[in-house]
Design a protein that fits this description.
The structure is a homodimer. Chain A is mainly alpha-helical and about 200 residues long. In chain A, about 70% of the residues lie in helices and about 0% in strands. Chain A has nine helices and no strands. Chain A binds a DNA duplex (33 and 33 nucleotides) through loops.
Chain lengths: ~200, ~200
DNA sequence: TGTACATCAGTGAACGCGCGTTCACTGATGTAC
DNA sequence: TGTACATCAGTGAACGCGCGTTCACTGATGTAC
């Protein structure tokens, strides 16, 4: 380890991402991040004005990865019809949310005010834009108003699913959250397909 | 203020609910709650083993109020058909989520493990059960499997909507989250109606 | 009814901890001459 | 090419804060006789 690290800013961000995903954003301390990067606790201040700036960058990377995954999901079935591509996108969204659950929470947490970080806002908007595009294809000629509603509806459903799917509730009744959730988990695709119809 | 308060446990809970709704659950300290109740910072320990126990009680009250509101919403249109009653319930859910947003967050936060607080789990299950019942009426004779899926779907959508509707994002494009959200906010009912059809 | 006493429900001081941030510093680097 | 020096990117110590929780205590209450 050299005295001048050379790549510390980048390493701090990746350390922060790692700790976020392991411990959750409310257990991330600047000190633990610095430690993870094998650097003194004050070193981050050479690269980030405050802790919040570093968290904002972690959040931004989350949205960028989400955008990338959504795009990859639709383009891997590029020849398929819009509906199939929409389904792939839905799956990709849920997969990201469940896989990177704690990062996902940071991305949607009010602790970072997106209006204070324009780059973060851009990244977040970018992810949303992927959904807008596929819905435009799915419902050609749709009015702006209806399109807006559909976007919110599907985004909300996916956002809600991520929120519910790893809740640790195990009620006892037959028709309950727990068992219903495993049904959904076991078969994302058919669930999403059905949701298009109902 | 008497030395023996007489009703401190109850007052601590209501103080905690108040502070939760004002500051959010991650800014609630036992000290601030005690202060709000005009009592020394150690007094709560006569009534709650740990801070978490008090938070669990706040969460439980949240679920109980939600249940009450959902029930009231359907019974106020008791003569109407199942669809109308379902719509009323949806509205009530969204209203609760938006009105008591920070309490709603606590209720769904992983900081309190519901499995450690059976009464809390009961209350949470109770709220979910209201949705199950109305969907059973809405789709009579539905299989347990499909019912489970529908429950998750609508719960997820409502949960997602609460999450999205007060996000502070104001993108610049025409078809964007911000404007679409105000459309939804302005007209919950028609939005929910539409979601039944799509 | 009066008194002794156990129990209950408060109090204030203190402990120990982790945190974000500041400060004066120091070693490494790069550049002008 | 060698040297003086400004700048950069680290360091360790320290500050001040808020927190959950424990402790020995004390005043109020209720009950047995």
């Amino acid at each position: 380890m050299k005295y001048h690290h050379g790549n510390l800013k980048e390493e701090l961000i990746t350390s922060a991402c790692k700790i976020c995903e392991i411990s959750g954003h409310d257990h991330m301390s600047l000190r633990s991040i610095a430690k993870e990067a094998s650097v003194s606790q004050t070193a981050p201040y050479r690269h980030f004005k405050t802790k919040e700036c570093l968290l904002a960058e972690v959040s931004r990377r989350g949205f960028d990865e989400l955008t990338k995954r959504l795009r990859a999901a639709t383009s891997k079935v590029n020849n398929a019809n819009a509906k199939d591509r929409f389904l792939e996108m839905g799956l990709a969204y849920l997969e990201f949310g469940l896989e990177k659950r704690k990062t996902y929470d940071l991305m949607h947490s009010p602790v970072i005010d997106k209006l204070e970080f324009p780059e973060l806002l851009d990244s977040a908007t970018g992810a949303f834009e992927e959904l807008v595009q596929i819905l435009k294809e799915l419902f050609p000629g749709i009015s702006e108003d209806s399109l807006g509603k559909k976007c919110i509806k599907f985004w909300a459903m996916m956002h809600g699913l991520v929120g519910l799917l790893d809740m640790k509730i195990e009620p006892e009744t037959d028709t309950n959250a727990g068992s219903a959730m495993s049904v959904v988990k076991d078969d994302f695709r058919s669930f999403l397909e059905e949701s298009l119809e109902i």
